[in-house]
User: Fold these one by one.
Assistant:
Number 1:
Amino acid sequence: MKRQITLKVNGVEREVYVEPWWSLAQVLREELGLTGTKISCETGNCGACTVLVNGKAVKSCLLLAVKAREKEILTIEGLGENGKLSPLQEAFVEHFAVQCGYCTPGMIMAAKALLDETPNPSEEEVREAIRGNLCRCTGYVKIVEAILSCSEKVKKEGGGQK
């Protein structure tokens, strides 16, 4: 039996009816139309479904939507502003860190969680932060370069990255 819940996604409260066993990933994609969050393994192994919940990287395929009530949820769609890419998204484009793109939203969300907590990470910290996100197309080199580049760019500009 479906239950009505309120989810705060990308700063907007959304009313949605969900089955108690539906994952947050499923609700984001199928009920709210936020298809940037990918569903792949559904076991938490690939990271394609990574979103931020209260600022922490979470594999949304493993979180029941009903457990996400009263939490701040940020998806890839919530990063840019006014049709512009965020600095992190721009860095992925500039460094050719996107190939097929399937893992990219989850990878960017994991990177955002890292940069929010550690604005000037080492290469080792970047690799650790994205270790739960699998990419079958790249060797991760360009992804790591993009994340480090974003960190440097934001540091030079003296601002935060969204």
Number 2:
Amino acid sequence: MFKKAGLFLALIGIIAILSIIACLLFVKFAPVSDSRIQVNVQYFYNKPSQIPSEVKIKIIKSNRALELYGGGVMIGRFKVGLGYASSGDKIKEGDGQTPIGKFYICTRVQSQYKYFLGISYPNKADAKRGLNDGLISQDEFDKIYQSIDAKEKPPWNTKLGGAIGLHGSNDSADWTAGCIALSEAGIDAIWAYAKMGTPVEIVV
């Protein structure tokens, strides 16, 4: 009986040791996570041999990730920083939110953060909400609609706010006034692909 009990305890000990080893291996090889990110995200950039057709950008706020697509294939996922009040949608100037919705690149300029790729916020949905909430006038509403129909930069000087875009400098914190911040290497990569009119979708 004592011999059987000894074998049983030895078996329990081996199982416990194997469990500890498995946990240590998981910790060592698990994807690195950001404290702002709710799930583990793996970042990568597979630079294609030539600029692909049908480039589009998707930004997932909850993951703090920007996905770059070319020809329907994801060619990169980059870490981003968002507005300092990053949990909700942008409502008005000065709220510190990064907007949610479908936009397009409407400006491309060099800036103090290396490059700035402006997006077409406010869009039509933002304009409609702003008009209903009394934040903008009918004239401002009409100008936003006209700009979006023409694929141009919408007015950035209304109470809805504006001048939201992608730029470089620091991707490790939510520090902007509503823009999407990447590392310098990240904005270099996006700048090469995101031409005027490139679709940009921002989701929760």
